[in-house]
Amino acid sequence: MNGYLDRKKTARLAGLLFFLWIISGFYDMFFVSPKIFVSGDPVASAQNILKYEFLFRTSIFSGLITSTLWVLLVWVFYDLFRTVNERYAKLLMAFVVVQIPVAFVKAGLSIAAILTLKGGILKSFELAQRQDLAMAFLKINDYTVLALELFWGLWLFPLAILIYQSVFIPRFLGIWLIINGIVYVLLSFTSIVLPEYKDLIFTFGMPAMFGELALMLWLLIKGVRGNKGVASS
To answer: Which tens digit of pLDDT belongs to each residue from 34-71?
Structure first.
């Protein structure tokens, strides 16, 4: 009984961290970026960065918070699933931790963009040149995301296997996450190799990309199901 209660508590902690991780990631995606970046108009985007500088800086820090929450989340996942299959639990952690240094690079490039626009660096450059360079820094950030989409998919595979092998989380969530992971891998591939097909993959793959949200809600609300004392392999 104590084992079940401990597992349920761990699962709900994972759900809480998952929820905070998603909210932190959505902050930039749905609140900051639409307010600052104007599609097809880099000059207006550059001006908005200076106009909403504090907001833009909060999005940079939010990205670091998101990465921190992700590390904490996979650590809790490791604690939750290590009795199911420790090898896959370690692989899960590895696929996430390897991405964390990119968060620091992205933050550095974003700060460099602000300093460039304000004339804090490259002072001898004309305003138009500084704007082009600042937007180039941010464009590099966008390209790193295309590469990271591969790992956004890869970390879901060991997680899906662990869920499928466990006896305390519904197997359909594991199957959903496998499909979710495949969509991310395909998005990364098409974005880099066949960019003309990325929108098609995104459109048809969108329903599968709610797999992480479904898992978060299950963990947060239910935790684990039944009084299951052991995990099946």
So the answer is: 999 998 888 899 999 999 999 999 999 999 999 999 99
C-beta separation of 184 from 147 below 8 A: no
Q: pLDDT, tens digit, for every residue of 117-127? A: 998 887 888 88
Nearest to 128 by CA among 117, 137, 140, 139: 117
Q: Residue written as tokens 């180039």?
A: 136
Would you give the end-to-end CA distance of the chain in angstroms?
21
Decide if 231 is inside a domain: no
Q: Name the band, by pLDDT with cuts 50, 70 and 90, for residue 6.
A: confident
Cα separation, 158 vs 163, in Å, equals 9
Question: Would 170 be classed as within a structural domain?
Answer: yes
From residue 74, alpha-carbon distances to 141, 168, 213 in Å are 24, 18, 15
Domain boundaries, position 22? 2-221
Q: Report yes or no: 95 and 155 within 8 Å, Cβ to Cβ.
A: yes
Sign of the four-CA dihedral 66, 72, 73, 78: positive
139, part of any domain = yes
Handedness of CA 37, 41, 42, 44 (dihedral sign): negative
Residue 92: which of 79, 105, 106 has the closest Cα? 79
Task: Pull the structure tokens for residue 226.
Answer: 């039944």
**Residue 11: inside a domain, yes or no?**
yes
- Give me the number of domains the chain comprises: 1
